[in-house]
Design goal:
Elements: H1 2-17, H2 28-36, H3 40-66, H4 76-79, H5 82-91, H6 93-96, H7 103-112, H8 122-125
Signal peptide: 1-25
Protein name: Rap1a immunity protein domain-containing protein
Keywords: Signal
Length: 128
Amino acid sequence: MKFIKFVSMFLVLVLSLVKLHIANAIDVSQLAVICSASDTAQRQFCHTYLGGALDAIAVMNDHAKANGQPIYCVHESALFDMEKIKAYVISQEAKFAKKNAILPVVELLKVTGGCLDGKSDSKNDDKK
């Protein structure tokens, strides 16, 4: 028992001395710079970051649909145009500045996704 207390206290001490690196989310200004770059690696990062976000948003939309509050109502193939999304994120830099880079993506999907105006592509929704 004393050994367990010693080990746990030792771990607490060591962990308190170790500088923890916490990943911060990319903000809109940072992503706008990356997505506007002519460097291929940065453009690839932009597409990967936005693609991962779209995957996460699609999963959230599936769960939100089950609760009757979808983020978007038309099929992903009609919405997930990477160049259009990238251009929109860049154009919203002033509005969102230091906010999470995914916020303008969610806003774009809400506005163009057909849920706000009552339009839904129910044929394509069922094909997921």
